[in-house]
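Inputs:
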Amino acid sequence: MKNRELIVAGVMSGTSADGINVALVRITGKGGVTSPAARAQTSGVGGRGKPRGIIGHTIELLGHAGSEYPRKVRAAVLTAMNAECARVADLARLNFLLGELYAEAVLATQKRFGVKADLVGCHGQTLYHQGETTAFLNRKIPATWQTGEAAVLASRVGVPVVSDFRPADMAAGGKGAPLVPFLDYMLFRDSRIGRIVQNIGGIANLTAIPAGAADSDVLAFDTGPGNMVIDAAADALFGKRYDRDGKIAASGTILEPQLQKLLAGTFFLQPPPKTAGREEFGREFVRQFLRRCGRARKPDILATATALTARSIADAARRFVLPALRRQRSYREMIISGGGARNITLVRMLRESLLPLGLRLRLSDEFGLPPEAKEAVAFALLAYETWNQKPSNLPSATGAKRAAVLGKISYA
Ligand SMILES: Nc1ncnc2c1ncn2[C@@H]1O[C@H](COP(=O)(O)OP(=O)(O)O)[C@@H](O)[C@H]1O
Ligand SMILES: [Mg+2]
């Protein structure tokens, strides 16, 4: 089955723990960058940014679907992420349960679009990620754990599954994250303009691709909270899972003094490489944030949480991307993806913050890639590379000492 053209199902569930995104893509290997995005931009191939190492593939999105975790599953996932109170038996069970849910999600998406995958790439649900080496029992080690049993998924769907992508990069000295820049580089590099590709999931992260970049020029890091603080505030103040379309935030006024204090936090000032998770912007951060806002109007608090995401993204671009590489790298655009791209208020705030930086905001939709499908497409691509025994980490993004073939394969 190791042929050039494969239909691959990418399966993603991110730190928001909101559910499962499945993307069905047809990937045709080799050749220049002829993805829909690259075609639309007539970029990449042949320009100054002639790829070194990474070749382009044709990536065609055949269909994608998102499904929310059932309420109790989400609660179990969030509990499992909170290492203090997780039980081993429950963690083991959750692994198998998620394998079943991923399989159902893939099968339902295949049915809906009348497409059958040859291969699945499943990121899994991250329960714990510590990209930096830390002392443990007299050794310094990094650690990561994505759950969702791939053997169950392979058995139910009937095709091989590539999963567990992060450890191989970490074994090669990398932080195991971010991995999506491999796709970003393939799709969005341009010989004439520099682009910042910004994903707004639970956490927000960017991939900066200067004009005419070689893959070693790519810079990627987490900018801070994406939807995580907004979601938690929507839950605490309004009993809602998220602020749909940013409607509540739109009716509020930003609490500027509180916002300025938050933006002066150490994470935002720290230069990249850096990663964030629930450790930085989870429960404890939100508790302090709500305390700081005191008895302000609830919509104002949500507007402030939304502005925190927008401004911290713009600050990261201004501080860490634009100055260093402005010389010949002409950054002009920020392309956003992730669920946060559907929050109209957040997008408006971000657009306003980018204007003075000379950056135009675009949605990944404009490149034929719906914001909610992007990460799932990325893991389909990574699975394709692994199946062909090709490396798919970007050492410049993860800090790895070498390129590595990522993941493990479970056979049906
Ligand atoms: N219509 C919408 N309006 C506002 N926010 C939305 C909308 N759709 C999705 N979101 C936000 O996107 C989040 C999910 O984003 P996602 O990219 O799946 O993150 P993750 O990768 O962390 O799972 C939701 O929790 C919610 O905050
Ligand atoms: Mg999600």
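The two ends are 13 Å apart (CA to CA). Flag for discussion at group meeting.
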